[in-house]
Amino acid sequence: MFHPAACLVTWALFAVAVQAFGALALAVASGLLIVAGYRAARQAVRLIRRAKWLLLSLWLILAYGTPGDLWRGMHWAPTIEGLELANLHVWRLLLLLASLAWLLRALPHERFMAGLWVLLCPMRGLGATPERTVARLALVFDYLEHAPPRGSWRNFLDVPDDSGRLIEAVSIDLPIWRARDIALIGLTLAGCVGLGMIG
Fold first, then answer.
1. Which residues of the chain fall short of a pLDDT of 50?
2. Which residues contact 66 (CB under 8 A, 6 or more apart)?
3. How open is the CA angle 133-145-102, to the nearest 5 degrees?
4. Lower CB count within 10 Å: N or C terminus of the chain?
């Protein structure tokens, strides 16, 4: 529906803005993300499960490492300020993972590479090489699609029949940039600024 580059810019704006959101803004953003990205719920749960130890470690570090008053005066408990900070940061990271799941669902591999190509082309003067970046990304996607199944070390010893195949060319379809794509970025930017102001 939207240009893949517009989707990437939208996600990048949200990823930066969510770091400044307070509790009220996070609650509003969570509701909007649930409504807009409910189809990506399964992917979001999968990403959150994979990051569970990171989330737990972050929560423990912030909860116990932030100075302040002990929760209920217990010497083994984290501080009240630490609990508030830990909950906010973990909430932000959960929103970021959920939005990433929405992005990966909205952009299949070919559209993702097309969006990345469009965003990198203006940076040629700074040394960016869209061709190499997109080609390497295509190789990564190809490896993920044809990687051996998990669960047994013997899978890595078995050489598949197509192990010698090479990707000779990568072709991407570049859609037309439309007014709705600019509107999407503008609405996202305005929404992020508004949510940042309400705290």
1. none
2. 78, 79, 81, 82, 85, 86
3. 75
4. N
Residues 128, 129, 132, 138, CA torsion sign: positive
Return all residues near 81 (Cβ < 8 A) that are at least 6 apart: 66, 67, 68, 69
Beta-bridge partners for 70: 79
Q: Which of 88, 81, 85, 80 is nearest to 23 (CA)?
A: 88
pLDDT on residue 146: 55
Q: What is the DSSP letter of 51?
A: T
Residue with tokens 């423990």: 60
State the DSSP code for 172.
-
CA nearest to 22, candidates 199, 177, 198 = 199
Domain extent, residue 74, equals 4-198
Q: Please report, rounded to a whole number, the percentage of residues in the chain having pLDDT higher than 90.
A: 36
